[in-house]
Amino acid sequence: MSAGFQFEIPSVLQASRQWAYDPNSAQKSPAAVLANLILLNSKSGNYLLNVAPSPMGTWAPSAIDVLQELADWFNVNGEAFTGTTPLYPFEFDGAFLQSRPGVVYVLFPAATPSGTASAAFTAGGNMTLTWIRPTLLQDTLQSVEILGQGPVPFTLGEVGLVVAGVAPRQVSLRSYWSAANKETAPCGLRDCSIYTEDGYTLVRAEATCFSSQTEGTIPLMLIFNSVAVDNALTNGTWTPQGYSTIDVECYAYPTQQPGTVPIAAYYNGHDYWMIGSDASRTEALARDYKYVATIGYALPASAGSDTLATVLKLSFA
């Protein structure tokens, strides 16, 4: 069934929503941009995204970062868009459907179009899609694959499609720098635009951790000192004096695992900086930050490590 007539929705990449170049504006998050594209594409829509050039004809580095992250995602998941058509009922419980002959793609964006975290895809353990049942299918389901990860075990029964062993979504633990306040702030699972809209700029990705708790991992928490949200994380065994936890940044390992790097707390007498990269460690020492404690271990930071959306590929006979 067709989703209807094709249409086009224009939007801007700049968070200020200004079409002309705004040197003071951050960019919308890649997750929010992709969530809008998935939503519109499921209804036969085109998404026109304006990237404003500077007076010198160049794009802002932050805009290039967003576009590169989107390009990394499309290199893995682009087949869910190329040559596909929307599939009725188009959207179900936060998942969006696209199809080609013999194949159905189920797309789970990591964020809503507004940029807030989406609960549509639960990573880790089994995932049940109650709306995919044998009585609703005309063809035989042969395989289920997560694009970028490969085939996964599944069962199909009257309770729905049960996909087993879904890997937790990887998410970058990033540090943001405020030149005015000379402080850093971490951002993992939360919408990072809360920092960029307040004048913070991205320093770098510190490490790659996980979006949900699985065996052997612990939550790394954002903490609060009764005055303002600060930039420290705690694994539950170390909390700076006078601070309490308020939110989860991501999940990491409490002890060193093969291939992981330490996430360490550094302090400059005023603010904490959660560091997982050699570059930040060098910069922190140059800014008179001192090592305090190692609070967890995660995978090294890598370009495009964030899963902006997870795509299930269902192949039928």
Verbal overview:
- The protein is mostly beta strands and 317 residues long.
- It contains 4 helices and 20 strands.
- The strands form 5 sheets. A 6-stranded antiparallel sheet has the order 3-4-5-20-7-8. It has a 6-stranded antiparallel sheet with strand order 12-11-13-19-17-18, covered by helices on one side. It has a 3-stranded antiparallel sheet with strand order 6-10-9, with no helix packed on it.
- The longest helix has 17 residues, at 61-77.
- The relative contact order is 0.15.
Short description:
With 317 residues, the protein is mainly β. The protein contains 4 helices and 20 strands. The strands form 5 sheets. The chain has a 6-stranded antiparallel beta sheet with strand order 3-4-5-20-7-8. A 6-stranded antiparallel beta sheet has the order 12-11-13-19-17-18, covered by helices on one side.
Attribute tags:
317 residues, mainly beta, 6-stranded antiparallel β-sheet, 4 helices, 13% helix, globular
* 3D shape: globular
End-to-end distance: 20 Å
Enumerate the spans where pLDDT stays under 50 for 5 or more consecutive residues.
Answer: none
Instruction: Count the E strands.
Output: 20
Mean pLDDT: 82
Helix content: 10-25%
The helix count comes to 4
Order of helices and strands: EHEHEEEEEEEEEEHEEEEEEHEE
- Give the percentage of residues in beta strands: 35-45%
Rg from C-alpha positions?
21 Å
Question: Which structural class is indicated by helix and strand composition?
Answer: mainly beta
Report on the biggest sheet.
Answer: 6 strands, antiparallel
Order of strands, widest sheet: 3-4-5-20-7-8
